[in-house]
Design brief:
The chain is mostly helical. The N and C termini lie far apart (about 35 Å). The chain has one domain. It is built from 3 helices and no strands. The longest helix has 18 residues.
């Protein structure tokens, strides 16, 4: 299954917003921008990306 570029674009946009406008929240994200998966074939699909996007949205909402 192809990964939705739309979801990836939303994630990138939200990460940039968190990093630039809310650096105090950005530190709560459990990843480094250069993180490399330790699995040979990590299961990344639209569902996992959508879940990640929703978790970023919740982080931002909890700050307001």
């Amino acid at each position: 299954m192809a990964i939705s570029t739309h979801i990836l674009e939303q994630i990138n946009k939200l990460l940039l917003e968190l990093e630039t406008k809310y650096p105090e929240l950005y530190s709560f994200i459990d990843e480094e921008p250069i993180t490399i998966p330790n699995l040979a074939h990590p299961d990344v699909n639209d569902t996992t990306l959508q879940d990640y996007l929703e978790s970023l949205k919740r982080l931002l909402l909890s700050h307001h």
